[in-house]
Amino acid sequence: MHKQRIKFDFLVHDLKVPLAVIEAGVTALIQKPEKYGPLTDRQLKVLRRILRNTMITRSLVNDALELGRSSEGIINRTTFRLSEFVKRTLVEVFDLTDHEVAEKVRGCASLVELRSALSPKKVLLHMDEGLWGGQVCMDENKLRQIARNLLSNALKYRKQQVDVRIAREDGSLTLTVKDDGEGIPADFHKKIFECYFQMDMHENHCVRGHGLGLAGVMVLVEDMGGELILESDVGRGATFSVILPE
Ligand SMILES: Nc1ncnc2c1ncn2[C@@H]1O[C@H](COP(=O)(O)OP(=O)(O)OP(=O)(O)O)[C@@H](O)[C@H]1O
Ligand SMILES: [Mg+2]
User: Fold this and answer.
1) What is the mean pLDDT of the chain?
2) Which one, of 240, 222, 221, 218, lies nearest residue 231 by Cα?
3) Ligand number nearest to the C-alpha of 178
4) Which of 50, 93, 144, 182 qualifies as a FRET site for 151, CA 20 to 30 Å off?
5) Any residues with CB less than 8 A from the CB of 81 and at least 6 apart, and which?
6) Tens digit of pLDDT for each residue in 191-208?
7) What is the enclosing helix (H) or strand (E) of 167?
8) Which atom of ligand 1 is nearest to the CA of 215?
9) Of 246, 99, 122, 113, which Cα lies nearest the Cα of 174?
10) How far, in Å, from the CA of 24 to the mean position of ligand 2?
């Protein structure tokens, strides 16, 4: 194995211990108020959010290490509800930027409730009730990584609104994320999928990226046997569509 690769895997590997310490500590605070003292509802909410995100990080670290084991992508298919997938993805995205919306999304019991929780954020969700209540058999973690990265980009680059569409036809699931931002010139349609490439190095976004999200999305889409279509032009927003066979 290439030395650089071993160093990388080793770094990821060593994230496991501090993560386990964080997870154990937060779990103890939540579960043992008699030992650590009582918590207010607001403190509990924050700790639950920390725990949730620590667990997501643990699962990402495990996936990263699994990936090192084989050069092929590993696909773990499970059957899951699309409503749960949509909510989990949105909670992960908003936990960082607006945790009140994340909490609301987590508590939504229907598509109607979810749409109204998202409306202050100007995120429009288009999917039909049948699909919301339905199940699919796919690699949910990978699907969530794809959706989370596309959605975070759209939220970062939009002017006002983001449209998310989920549809199912001819044995495929299509996820479309559309924003109304500055768009991507045709010359860059290939380049933005390369590692570390960013079009706007000098722009001042509140969360700086690494130019890795779309490269990762493309690899996962390929591993899942799917296809990614980008439609965009200067001043006309960007639409990323991912079509994945079930
Ligand atoms: N929806 C979009 N609208 C306009 N430009 C975009 C959009 N999505 C991606 N880009 C451009 O493509 C580049 C690469 O995107 P990518 O998601 O790979 O990296 P990033 O968002 O900058 O950082 P990271 O995802 O690693 O945090 C971005 O820096 C940006 O210039
Ligand atoms: Mg990104």
Assistant:
1) 92
2) 240
3) 1
4) 50
5) 133, 134, 135
6) 999 988 998 755 555 556
7) strand 162-169
8) 18
9) 246
10) 30
What pTM does this model have? 0.88
Give the per-residue pLDDT at 72.
62
Joined together, the tokens standing for residue 115 give 């749409």
For 25-36, the pLDDT digits (tens) are: 999 999 999 999
Which residue owns the Cα nearest ligand 1 atom 8? 153
Higher pLDDT, 64 or 238: 238
Q: Using an 8 Å Cβ cutoff, are 64 and 57 in contact?
A: no
In angstroms, rounded to a whole number, what is the distance separating the alpha carbons of residues 160 and 156? 10
CB atoms closer than 10 angstroms to residue 11: 10
Ligand 1 centroid vs 118 CA: distance in angstroms? Answer: 22
Q: Which atom of ligand 1 is nearest to the CA of 197?
A: 14
